[in-house]
């Protein structure tokens, strides 16, 4: 086994377009395998991260909505934490709520106060503690959620407007400024965390994954003030940077799924899948990171559009199936479909469902339910 | 070897259009099948919407117990499909390619999905019927074959040779005459000695007396265009509201020149009424172990179908607590006390439940608003007023009270399959956390 530590840093709500324009993220790109088309299973943290931790879509694990953390089928799906725990890793996480990731397998499950804790300082301290463990011969898995973007959006958008507030959609500039201000703070956080990782020399014996779980709207589409209502690319297309000792930096533009990350990490650590559990939906991306080619897989995403209700539904009602060329969206709540030609219309402005019935049918045949 | 099961459900097929005086279609094959079968003339489906009714068919549970609707099919809720599979049945289907049917048939061995949005290419034109015939010869035994046809839903794509007076008064009836030719072909392929054939429907429907479809009112070009710019989540509710308003105007215009019964045919399902044309469905059992030429007038329910099938094929119906019961004693001419049938109206929205709930007995039909037992109260004396023309609720407060009590008794048992793995504490915790994170208002 390749005994490296594993550090996952989640930039909750990080937008791909902002990362691509950021000098801090560019520095990351220069030393990583950068996946610039990572499709999340769900455009909200709970279902998205349960899928990442299990390498499996929530439609199979049971966690497919905001409500279903405790419906995760623990006996059928093994999480990355449990795999590492089995190999005597010390496992530790720091998150903003106890329902955002599966708890099983964690030795330490910390919850920060998103309004009062200084996450840079707090996470730096955790890195120091992990370093001590590591120096005494124990490997570690550390999961850090940077939740400040969410906190601001929650306070200034989610709790103030609803998905149909005209006032929100009128002020696109304000929305962009609010988001960019928060993204800048995330960049500062990452700069400091990397300084810490390097000063502790953890970069020499750790795999570090920096990823986002979903994007956040700045007012692109009426009907979604933040995320979780639709399956458009500005929330489901995210970023991921894998860094490990000796990596050959590479940008991978091919579509991958965030459910592929966990099998990738297991493959890197030379851990085989536990056959007493159900197979994962994801596949290892290590060949791509090593410059080899892999067939593109279809990406499935789903969410529950609350429509005019005060809470999100318990079952997803909006689903999409995506290739790098096309996306078919199924709105189950009103029996409509949308089709977008992503190559020529990346902003998904022009619904061509009536024009390409053959494409619609081909995607629908592969629809994952 | 257990017998095969062929379950054919024809969407929107009404009992009164299958049998009896108000039938105007020409259905020699269906008529002959009825003579060879046990035919229930008072079978009541659970709801006027496909997801709710088929959900209760396959689980023998009412929707408030199973949580199943058009928008949600949960395989964690015990169902008869998985039971048959566990007893080595080979499960096959021929169903529309809608999410609900795809979820329903997820664990089947082989499914053929026909394209719902391609109406003109259904059964009659591209040999889908032949596909079913071929299938009936190919499946490994014992097989369970579920076929759900939607040809009886407007707009009708009738073969011209059937679109004539001699085949029925309405397009609906003529289409049924055409479907009958296929039923005949299906029966020819089935060996009824070793197969049970069940013919039924999900729910009934209103059959408009007008040739034009008031639901298909022309949308102004400008609004059609706006659909391409505005997300469908926004544009569709606006358009459907506009359609509803226009339909309401059209209805008002026509109401004066129509009888009450004619006017009723212009309504939509999923509203505050559940007339027998919506909930009284055909139910025909034929073949292995089923008496022939038997007409059962007693009221039975859609939730009784699978417990009956299980007993006929010799599988213990051990799904746990269910709402239905086996009708085999009736087939054997033993008496069973009638059970009241729970009924509810469907909803077109994923986030809302239907407007009314109620019960039907062979004497009365009682309905009231789902949320408030004092609103939208209707009571029909279905025995003496089979066309349900007179709401007698206000004249019979005592019967209303009794019916409400029966309804309460049926619905009072708490939801048994809603999130079975979650404790109340966990639910509370999730709600509190979601509130904290800003997702609940």
Average predicted confidence as pLDDT of chain A: 95
Instruction: Count up the helices of chain B.
Output: 15
Biggest β-sheet of chain B: count, sense, barrel? 9 strands, mixed
Range of helix content of chain B? 25-40%
Biggest sheet layout of chain A: 9 strands, mixed
Mean pLDDT over the residues of chain B: 89
Q: What top-tier CATH class of the largest domain in chain B fits best?
A: Alpha Beta
Kindly provide the name of the CATH class of the largest domain in chain A. Answer: Alpha Beta
Provide the gyration radius of chain B in Å: 22 Å
CATH architecture of the largest domain in chain A: 3-Layer(aba) Sandwich
Unreliable stretches of chain A, pLDDT < 50, 5 or more residues? none
Oligomer, anyone?
heterodimer
Query: Largest inter-chain interface?
Result: A-B, 54 and 39 residues
Characterization of the model:
The complex is a heterodimer of chains A (369) and B (441). Chain A is of the alpha/beta class and 369 residues long. Chain A has two domains: 5-292, Alkaline Phosphatase, subunit A; 300-365, Arylsulfatase, C-terminal domain (2-Layer Sandwich), CATH 3.30.1120.10. Chain A is built from 13 helices and 13 strands. Chain A has helices at residues 16-20, 23-29, 45-54, 58-61, 80-86, 119-135, 148-158, 166-170, 172-199, 233-236, 261-268, 286-289, 357-365, and strands at residues 5-11, 33-39, 90-95, 108-111, 140-146, 206-211, 237-243, 250-252, 256-257, 299-303, 318-322, 326-331, 336-341. In chain A, the strands form two sheets. In chain A, strands 1, 2, 3, 4, 5, 6, 7, 8 and 9 form a nine-stranded mixed β-sheet that branches. Chain A has a four-stranded antiparallel β-sheet with strand order 10-11-12-13, covered by helices on one side. In chain A, helix 7 (148-158) runs antiparallel to helix 9. The mean pLDDT of chain A is 95. With 441 residues, chain B is of the alpha/beta class. Chain B has three domains: 4-208 and 271-331, Alkaline Phosphatase, subunit A, CATH 3.40.720.10; 214-257, no CATH class; 341-412, Arylsulfatase, C-terminal domain, CATH 3.30.1120.10. In chain B, the strands form two sheets. In chain B, strands 1, 2, 3, 4, 5, 6, 7, 8 and 9 form a nine-stranded mixed β-sheet that branches. Chain B has a four-stranded antiparallel β-sheet with strand order 10-11-12-13, with helices on one face. In chain B, strand 3 (90-96), helix 5 and strand 4 (110-114) form a beta-alpha-beta unit. Chain B is globular. Chains A and B meet through helix 7 of A and helix 5, helix 8, helix 9 and helix 15 of B.
């Amino acid at each position: 086994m390749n005994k490296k530590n594993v550090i996952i840093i989640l930039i909750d709500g990080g937008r791909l377009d902002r990362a691509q324009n950021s000098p801090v993220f560019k520095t990351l790109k220069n030393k990583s395998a950068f996946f610039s088309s990572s499709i999340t299973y769900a455009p909200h943290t709970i279902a998205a991260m349960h899928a990442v931790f299990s390498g499996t879509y929530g439609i199979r694990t049971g966690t497919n909505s905001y409500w279903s953390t405790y419906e995760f089928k623990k006996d059928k799906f093994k999480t990355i934490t449990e795999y590492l725990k089995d190999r005597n890793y010390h496992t530790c996480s720091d998150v903003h709520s106890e329902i955002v990731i599966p708890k099983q397998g964690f030795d330490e499950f910390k919850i920060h106060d998103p309004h009062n804790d200084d996450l840079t300082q707090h996470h730096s301290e955790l890195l120091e503690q992990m370093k001590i463990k590591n120096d005494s011969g124990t490997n570690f898995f550390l999961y850090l959620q940077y939740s400040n973007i969410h906190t601001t959006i929650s306070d200034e958008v989610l709790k103030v407007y609803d998905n149909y507030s005209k006032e929100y959609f009128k002020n696109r500039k304000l929305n962009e400024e609010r988001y960019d201000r928060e993204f800048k703070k995330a960049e500062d956080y990452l700069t400091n965390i990397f300084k810490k990782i390097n000063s502790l020399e953890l970069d020499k014996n750790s795999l570090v994954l920096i990823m986002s779980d979903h994007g956040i709207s700045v007012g692109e589409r009426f009907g979604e003030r933040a995320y979780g209502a639709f399956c458009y690319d500005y929330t489901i297309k995210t970023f991921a940077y894998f860094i490990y000792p000796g990596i050959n930096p590479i940008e991978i533009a091919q579509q991958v799924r965030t459910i592929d990350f966990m099998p990738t990490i297991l493959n890197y650590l030379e851990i085989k899948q536990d056959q007493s559990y159900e197979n994962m939906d994801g596949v290892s991306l290590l060949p791509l990171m090593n410059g080899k080619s892999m067939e593109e897989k279809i990406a499935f995403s789903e969410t529950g559009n609350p429509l005019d209700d005060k809470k999100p539904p318990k079952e997803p009602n909006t689903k999409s199936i995506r290739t790098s060329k096309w996306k078919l969206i199924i709105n189950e709540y009103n029996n409509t479909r949308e089709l977008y030609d992503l190559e020529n219309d990346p902003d998904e402005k022009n619904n061509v469902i009536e024009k390409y019935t053959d494409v619609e049918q081909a995607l629908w045949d592969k629809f994952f339910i | 070897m257990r017998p095969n099961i062929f379950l054919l459900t024809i969407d929107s097929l009404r009992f009164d259009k299958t049998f009896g005086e108000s039938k105007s279609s020409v259905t020699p094959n269906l008529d002959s099948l009825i003579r060879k079968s046990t035919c229930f003339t008072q079978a009541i489906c659970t709801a006027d919407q496909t997801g709710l009714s088929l959900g209760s068919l396959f689980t023998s549970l009412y929707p408030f117990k199973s949580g199943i609707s058009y928008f949600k099919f949960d395989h964690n809720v015990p169902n008869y499909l998985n039971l048959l599979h566990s007893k080595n049945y080979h499960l096959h289907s021929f169903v529309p390619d809608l999410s609900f049917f795809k979820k329903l048939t997820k664990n089947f061995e082989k499914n053929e999905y026909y394209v719902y949005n391609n109406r003109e290419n259904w059964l009659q034109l591209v040999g889908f019927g032949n596909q079913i015939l071929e299938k009936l010869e190919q499946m490994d035994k014992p097989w369970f074959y579920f076929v759900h046809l939607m040809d009886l839903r407007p707009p009708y794509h009738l073969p011209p040779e059937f679109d004539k007076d001699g085949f029925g008064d309405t397009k609906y009836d003529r289409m049924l005459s055409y479907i009958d030719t296929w039923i005949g072909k299906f029966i020819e392929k089935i060996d009824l000695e070793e197969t049970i054939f069940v013919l039924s429907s999900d729910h009934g429907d209103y059959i408009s007396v007008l040739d034009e479809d008031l639901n298909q009112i022309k949308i102004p070009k400008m609004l059609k265009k706006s659909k391409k710019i505005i997300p469908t989540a926004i544009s569709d509710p606006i358009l459907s509201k506009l359609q509803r308003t226009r339909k309401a105007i059209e209805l008002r215009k026509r109401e004066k020149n129509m009888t009450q019964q004619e006017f009723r045919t212009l309504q939509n399902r999923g509203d505050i009424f559940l007339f027998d044309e919506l909930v009284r469905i055909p139910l025909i059992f034929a073949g292995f172990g089923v008496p022939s030429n038997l007409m059962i007038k007693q009221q039975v329910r859609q939730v009784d179908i699978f417990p009956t099938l299980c007993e006929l094929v010799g599988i213990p119906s051990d799904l746990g607590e269910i709402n239905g019961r086996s009708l085999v004693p009736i087939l054997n001419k033993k008496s069973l006390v009638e059970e009241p049938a729970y009924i509810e109206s469907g909803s077109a929205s994923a986030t809302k439940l239907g407007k009314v709930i109620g019960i039907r007995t062979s004497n009365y039909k009682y309905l009231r608003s789902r949320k408030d037992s004092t609103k939208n109260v209707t009571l029909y004396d279905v025995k003496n007023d089979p066309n349900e023309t007179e709401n007698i609720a206000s004249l019979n407060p005592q019967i209303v009270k009794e019916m409400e009590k029966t309804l309460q008794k049926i619905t009072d048992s708490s939801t048994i399959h809603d999130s079975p793995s979650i404790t109340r504490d966990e639910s509370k915790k999730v709600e509190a956390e979601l509130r904290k994170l800003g997702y609940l208002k």
